[in-house]
Fold each of these.
Amino acid sequence: MKRHHVHLSATIETATSVGARRGTPVILQVDAKAMVAEDFLFYRSENGVWLVDESLPGSLFRTA
């Protein structure tokens, strides 16, 4: 893949809409509060998607 950032969305609806442009989306929930505590830098794209530069450790994933 040619992606340079991890793409995050504030809502499941946004994640589904953006992800569906490339096929069937897979939605994972992450602990954004823990990401802030771990000093991840967030950027917001024009389409409302949040971006981070680095891969995410498994400890940040949550079950819905």
Note: The longest helix spans residues 12-19.
Amino acid sequence: MFKLQKVENVFDLMELEDDERSKILAYLKPAQLSDVARFCNRYPNIELQYEIENKDRIKAGSTVNVSVQLEREDEVTGPVIAPYYPQVMNSYYT
């Protein structure tokens, strides 16, 4: 018997050893496993930095200006993987 690893997000799944990941995903159908692999390979690694301007002078109800910088580690191009947007498509998961 093996101990299940706690997987809460895409990065947790991708960081697993191959044998651990295989055991966790063993119950998936081949098409579902293919979808998981495709999604993980396309999942963006984004770093976010922000700065609140004049943060020492902010009062309740006042306007706040926030400068945000997003940096994507890998340039992944192509369509977004969103099978349920804008509506549920025919699914083989049922």
Note: The two ends are 29 Å apart (CA to CA).
Amino acid sequence: MGNRGTVSELKPTVAAVLPGGGARGAYEVGALSVLLPALEERGERVSVWCGTSVGAINAAAYGSLAHQSASDQADTVMHFWKTVRKQHVMSPLIGVGGARTIARIVAHAAGIPGVSLAGLMDPSPLAKSLEEWIDWHQLDANVESEVVRAVCVVATSMSTGSPVAFVSAGDGAPEFVDDEIRYVETNLRGEHVRASAAIPLLFPTVEVTSPASAHGHYADGGTRLNSPIKPALSLGAEKVIVIGLEPFSPGGRRTVTPRTPSIADVASNVLDGLLVDQVAHDLRRLALINSFFVEDAATTGALDAPRTYRLARGHKPYRPVSYALVAPQRRGEIGRLAQQMFHRRYGGLRGLRDLDYVVLMRALGADTPARGELLSFLLFDPEFTGELIKLGRRDARRWLRRHPRFWCRDASHDLSFGAVDRAAIREQEALAEFRQLRNPRS
């Protein structure tokens, strides 16, 4: 495992943006196992890692391995995902753990003082697992030696309802005031990652104690910022790799059925809003910046209003950002794979190998695509995660075939967001500038 050069020797700054998705995190490492070696062959390496929920776990893991070669990083993280089991993440539903959960539900419903219903599942095994999976002191050393520029995980503050980016960085967290995100510099530890992965209702919130200025309870960062593209840019990224868990292009409407919606239907729609819509919104913004706002004479030219507006707020001018996007080609592909894998692994008497999954599937209702979507977040099964790794590798190779130079900047190649009225954009940005000048403290 050879040591790598410092960030200062590797230009431009490349960031990897990893969204949340439970067991789908295996797809991310599959894609990166192809992209990272290809990037290294070009003389480039990821130096900024940003993640939310399971993406935060992956980001911290890669940050702790940044001193290794790209192929060694890929092998290490893939081995971890091929060996992870449900018991490494959450306590069993059937047995003592389930009995405790039921007791909490009953006590909470009865109004017994001192009893709170923080979540339906117990993720206490994850705390121990993170200490075994991630070498936090090596992560600190990689940041200090500038092998990696920054590692950032996003959680949602329960006191403000806003996203908080916990950042371990040699240059510190961004100092400018952001309307949407609070940046907190710290040495990342398991509490920050667990906070980012605390899915509301399913898992309890996590109390973060360090640093003292950010002490409080936090939930999954995906509720406010599932795909942390903006923090990556704020941390200096000039190129970004974005891994998606559904296609980036707009999808068709869901098929409407006359039956009463199940828990899976409701949860699947919520997750779509968190994990798909937000990513599409961030990428649309990135595409607009590249196409209309950047200060690049070779393009359509910069707009004066955005530049003035951003400088007034302490931000740097917009700059062109090259990207690499990897996601499944067909919507719902991962959910269908989860359904198939469940029936193969746990159908009939095979369900005796893990009764938790059988009970969970019964509770989620009919055998529908929505149930598969939700199951794909919770199916920490080695065969399923192994197949997700293969899917990620397949889709990363498809990107490289389509973009042999790795990077793209033209949104028309990979993103479809409809016609854009340039005159309307000018008017909107001019109005924003006027408001900023009238109220510089806003």
Note: The first strand starts at residue 14 and ends at 18.
